[in-house]
Design a protein that fits this description.
single chain, 205 residues, alpha/beta, Conserved hypothetical protein from pyrococcus furiosus pfu- 392566-001, ParB domain, Helicase, Ruva Protein, domain 3, 2 domains, 7 strands
């Protein structure tokens, strides 16, 4: 069932299946800007694609389900990139659809929560990268980590956990109107004791 050796394949981005409902489009935009700078040099563009492999799980009907890098996949799709290099982490193609999603959920390989942080049915997970909805708080959480607000952590979907923490504390309109101001507020919140339970918390200093 599991790959003992790394298996690499090139898959069309339009054929990739998400395992979450939303992404932060602000973060997607940042990755698009990075790709635009990289693609000016053909060698750098090739190296980028080869070193940013997307981990997938083979599911029912042998579809490729992404378990990380949804933002990168969406960014490359919007930039007109046709295919990406994927690495197959596990082959669950023999499972029924219901058993597949239960297993994925138990392994922390899916995140069936919408852009308001509400858990939804597995059927609500979109079937295409292009259909992922926008969660502004996920963008804010991603920017918070990059700004040193919390450390990169192995906890699955840790940025979404931080997004839910910020969701009840920062006005969404503020994120839309003044992202930098919202980020500064998030940085202050990240130092508080209230955030102490969150993955990657760095403390008050």
């Amino acid at each position: 069932m599991f790959s003992r050796d790394i298996t690499l394949n090139t898959v069309k981005i339009t054929d990739l299946r998400p395992t979450q409902i939303s992404v932060g489009l602000h973060e997607v935009q940042a990755k698009r800007h990075h790709w635009k700078a990289v693609r000016e040099n053909e060698n750098k563009a090739t190296d980028f694609i080869q070193t940013h492999m997307i981990p997938v799980v083979l599911g029912p009907k042998s579809n490729h389900y992404i378990i990380d890098h949804h933002h990168l996949a969406r960014a490359l799709l919007e930039e007109g990139v046709d295919g990406v290099l994927v690495t197959v982490v596990a082959d669950l193609s023999a499972l029924s659809k219901s058993s597949f999603w239960v297993y994925m959920d138990n392994r922390g390989w899916c995140h069936p929560y919408d852009n308001e942080g509400v858990r939804r049915d597995f059927n609500d997970i979109p079937k295409a990268i292009a259909n992922l909805s926008d969660d502004p708080y996920r963008s804010l959480a991603g920017a918070l980590r990059l700004s040193g607000g919390f450390a990169k952590d192995t906890t699955p979907f840790s940025e979404f956990i931080w997004a839910d923490f910020l969701r009840s504390r920062i006005n969404q309109k503020k994120i839309a109107k003044d992202f930098e101001s919202a980020l500064n507020q998030a940085l202050n919140l990240a130092k508080s004791k209230a955030a102490g339970y969150l993955p990657g918390w760095c403390g008050p200093t």
